[in-house]
Specification:
- The protein has 2 helices and 4 strands, in the order E-H-E-H-E-E.
- By secondary structure, the protein is α+β, with helices and mostly antiparallel strands.
- Helix 1 crosses helix 2.
Length: 90
């Protein structure tokens, strides 16, 4: 799957990501991936549910993967950050 089907979630309002996802589906994509980590995980779930239940009723959650990334911050301190990847299929 190409990287142009990936929506990386951050600190914007959920509707920004809903619009991005709907736009990708409307431009011919049959699968989109929502990726988030840390505090944005709940926003990714919210976006997936809004797309599925309110806007594109024929979209289903094909796969949900969770994991952990190890990040190196200041002073070479290592921190574990949770991640989620939600694959939506039309």
């Amino acid at each position: 799957m190409a990287d142009d089907n990936v929506v990386l979630l951050g600190n914007k309002k959920p509707m920004s990501y809903v619009l991005a996802t709907i736009t990708q589906f409307n431009s011919g994509s049959s699968e989109d991936i929502l990726k988030a980590r840390g505090k944005a995980i709940s926003r990714a779930v919210d976006v997936a549910e809004m797309v599925r239940r309110k806007f594109l009723l024929d979209v289903k959650a094909k796969k949900i993967e969770i994991g952990t990334e190890e990040l190196t911050g200041n002073n070479d301190m290592k921190t574990n950050v949770s991640t989620i990847e939600i694959v939506l299929k039309k």
